[in-house]
Task: structure prediction
Amino acid sequence: MLKSLITSGMITGVAAGSLAMAGGATAAAQPVAAANPVIVVAGFSSPAIGGLPLAARLQANGTKAYYTAASRDSGTGDITVGAQDLGVMVDKVLKETGATKVDLVGLSMGSLTSRYYVKSLGGDAKVDHLVTVAGPNYGTNRANWAKILNCVGLVSCEQMAIGSDFLNDLNAGSDTIGSVKYTTFRSSWDEVVVPIDNAKLKDGATNILLQDQCPLRFVEHQLSALDGTIADGVMDALANKPVQMNCFAI
Result:
């Protein structure tokens, strides 16, 4: 059974964890809490715990939050299989909380896992808001370079390459599915998602460039999951508010 921070339990199965105590992980502005339970999906080569810092911030702000890996094998497995696992977790969260929908926050490759679940596995009926943070939504040339070296045999690396069969399928048709609300966050200093505008989505998505609001804020790819200003913006998005980030959040 899924457990929340209140009981300090651990999620079993689906390579996923609920929140353990994480004192002090709060954004400075404390926006309104999200109405739905939130699942934070970690990125490439990250175990589920990679989603913990952001999930802890959401939980501290009054949102019931969980975290999981983007795919099996600590985030290096097939994204489509990871999306199937995410679907299992969504159903468990809905059952435990009694909610009718969840919100998803995808970190880096977790953005693709979340989007595939919504588009291809019926997630559009169970997801209210999908937020991507530093997501290679249209691929990254870093993965193309790695593909020349066979991505060390990692299928998810090949899937993130610009022009991959996986991305061509994921991005065919509309980027925004059904009534799901989409918001993307990206930073000019991201050295992994290149070109950085490949993090954007079309067809009505809200695309936020961190430096448009906070021009002096330095956040590279790995720091995106830890940054207080981005977390502040994510909370605004999940609360269906205009995104006005606190540039001094820690």
